[in-house]
Write a structure and sequence with these properties.
The structure is a homodimer of 119-residue chains. Chain A is 61% helix and 5% strand. A two-stranded antiparallel ribbon of chain A has the order 1-2. The first copy, chain A, is elongated and about 65 Å long. The longest helix of chain A has 33 residues, at 77-109. Chain A folds into 2 domains: 1-58, Multidrug-efflux Transporter Regulator, Chain: A, Domain 2 (Orthogonal Bundle), CATH 1.10.1660; 76-119, no CATH class. Chain A contains 5 helices and 2 strands; from the N terminus they run ααββααα. At the A-B interface, helix 3 and helix 5 of A face helix 3 and helix 5 of B. Chain A binds a DNA duplex (30 and 30 nucleotides) through helix 2.
Amino acid sequence: MKIKDVSKLTGLPISTLRFYERKNLIPDTFVKRDVNNYRIYSEEVVEFLNDVKALLSVDFSIEELSLLVNQELNLTYDVKKKIVEQKIREIEDIQQRLRKSKKFLHAILEGKANFQTQC
Amino acid sequence: MKIKDVSKLTGLPISTLRFYERKNLIPDTFVKRDVNNYRIYSEEVVEFLNDVKALLSVDFSIEELSLLVNQELNLTYDVKKKIVEQKIREIEDIQQRLRKSKKFLHAILEGKANFQTQC
DNA sequence: ATTTGCTATAAACCTAGGTTTATAGTTCAT
DNA sequence: ATGAACTATAAACCTAGGTTTATAGCAAAT
């Protein structure tokens, strides 16, 4: 597949695909170069990128994710496991803040929030 | 209260307090000017800013929040209500994505995620 | 063979949400 | 009355996560 196909299948702009690659977010196993220097992607890259999209959309930064994915760093499974576990805790933190904020917004709607006296 | 006191009580850096004010995030009712042009804050600003912090930390942007708070715009209660309701829906969206991501991360830990074959 | 479309890179640009710096006026303690 | 601490503004700077632009080399269809 060429870059445009990957773009269509993942919904990620071509510029973003190139940008992610520069950031080491796409392992070499997924993308080779043709004789003309065009990127040639494997079919599996689509599922991979969909996972990446999901993770980026919540709490992972590009840098964190590239840490997990970059094979050259050769992190042990244990180190990666710790990163993932830490991330799960961060997500649970966000979940708690979201629950609070939602309560707060409902309080605003019901005119119960102090905040609302200023709005 | 002067700016440093507010900074201490809210945990927001002085530079951020001034920045938020420039962004119309702090209603005039909370901050006046002394003869020397120093900002003089009311006591209530502390609770207000804590609410602002909570909302910014999840899903509100400064601009959205200033829309709700800016009295000069004179938005009707109905318009503000719709903004808040919309925001609640956005939060629920995020909550769903977080639940999915968490599942995904657990799957990675258990070696069940396809993603993991690349990590 | 030339126009249209796809690909490439490097570098500049953009936005949000701040922070830092430069410069200057005030206040308080000694 | 002088130094330390606090305040002010404007403008420059910073980071993340991209996007846009400029320039140029392939490819496919007419």
